[in-house]
Task: inverse folding
């Protein structure tokens, strides 16, 4: 009888635990579905220009497609309009317009799934209709070609943030990469007079000033110039991983004081200080094959796909745990509070993500981890999108003349 009682008790306790697990799983899914989930940076438009159709299943080819956005509960996606430094004067602006036209064409072909929005009101209306609100962010100030009228036109076409620099500096702002490597092309780091005019014009238009990618001096010059809260669309914490793309604690505090929001990048190399060492060891082990792929003009992304397929376990071992992304988030919250952090995945612009975050479809796992770390429902809703919505509203308030 005693033995049977123990068995019965064990079974009952086991059922209780299983019930709790099921309830918790349901809770995070329900919370994620109810929240407005915003991702402030995705680079899939470049893949579309290369011939892919995000209305189709692109699993194994990209991090993103329309079905996986839906599965991941992504309500608002800011699509990056990007070019590298080779798109300088005479090319960057036209390439930006091409990408915006491409996004509009995708939305026109899929009106039941997504709508390109320009205002907070349009965003909320679209989300209420259970469609994805698509927004535009220009990644790289070189795409305005030193011309404020081009900035105005990009805003009129729907761009709602602009990253002042990409890895390359402009004639008016120095990038994080150039400042870190001592390759700033101009005599002085930071913003020059025209750079300050760019920030001021963005404030006047209601376009968010994005401080991802910018050099530290540019960051401080922009913080001192802007009259609106800034966005950091896809960066991480320097105090955890001292990469030049990440913000140090003083910068994080400045964003908090400014009322801005830092959106965390999912790239393994920005999250994990040991990632680069593991990656170099992998490349050394397979150098001959990688050299052969490069001789065939394979891109960085194509080589990453090859590695995942040819050496799946080794490739998986390169990736940091999902918990590390949450460590970066915790660090910002402890410094400046929960009102100043969000998500900016950089999906389809990066080659490695934390374990479990294989694509946009896996975004609910972040909500699960936030719950596990003790964040309240209210705070989770802020992190997932509420903070961005507040930032968007505050930047959209334009002084009427």
Result:
């Amino acid at each position: 009888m005693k033995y049977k009682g123990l068995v019965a008790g064990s079974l009952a306790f086991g059922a209780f635990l299983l019930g709790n697990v099921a309830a918790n799983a349901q809770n995070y899914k329900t919370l994620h579905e109810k929240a407005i989930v915003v991702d402030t940076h995705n680079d899939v438009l470049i893949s579309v220009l290369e011939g892919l159709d995000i209305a189709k299943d692109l699993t194994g080819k990209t991090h993103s497609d329309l079905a996986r956005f839906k599965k991941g509960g992504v309500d608002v996606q800011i699509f990056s309009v990007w070019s590298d430094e080779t798109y300088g004067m005479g090319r960057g602006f036209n390439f930006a317009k091409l990408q915006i036209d491409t996004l509009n064409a995708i939305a026109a072909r899929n009106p039941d799934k997504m709508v390109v929005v320009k205002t907070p009101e349009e965003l909320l209306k679209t989300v209420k209709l259970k469609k994805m609100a698509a927004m535009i962010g220009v990644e790289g100030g070189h795409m305005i070609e030193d011309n404020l009228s081009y900035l105005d036109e990009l805003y009129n076409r729907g761009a709602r943030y602009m990253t002042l620099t990409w890895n390359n500096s402009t004639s008016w702002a120095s990038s994080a990469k150039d400042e870190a490597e001592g390759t700033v092309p101009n005599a002085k780091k930071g913003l020059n007079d025209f750079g300050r005019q760019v920030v001021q014009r963005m404030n006047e238009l209601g376009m968010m000033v994005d401080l991802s990618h910018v050099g530290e001096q540019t960051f401080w010059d922009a913080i001192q110039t802007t009259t609106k809260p800034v966005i950091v669309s896809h960066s991480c914490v320097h105090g955890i991983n001292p990469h030049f793309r990440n913000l140090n604690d003083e910068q994080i505090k400045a964003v908090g004081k400014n009322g801005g929001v830092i959106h965390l990048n999912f790239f393994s190399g920005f999250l994990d200080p040991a990632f680069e060492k593991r990656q170099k060891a992998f490349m050394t082990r397979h150098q001959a094959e990688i050299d052969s792929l490069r001789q065939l003009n394979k891109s960085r992304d194509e080589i990453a796909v090859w590695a995942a397929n040819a050496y799946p376990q080794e490739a998986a071992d390169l990736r940091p745990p999902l918990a590390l992304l949450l460590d970066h988030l915790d660090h910002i919250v402890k410094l400046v509070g929960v009102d100043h952090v969000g998500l900016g995945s950089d999906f389809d612009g990066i080659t490695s993500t934390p374990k479990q975050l294989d694509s946009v479809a896996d975004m609910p796992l972040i909500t699960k981890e936030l719950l596990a770390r003790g964040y309240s429902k209210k705070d989770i809703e802020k992190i997932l999108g509420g903070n961005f919505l507040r930032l968007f509203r505050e930047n959209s308030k334009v002084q009427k003349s």
About this structure: The chain is about 50% helix and 10% strand. The beta strands are 38-42, 76-82, 114-116, 132-139, 159-163, 208-210, 231-235, 261-264, 341-343.
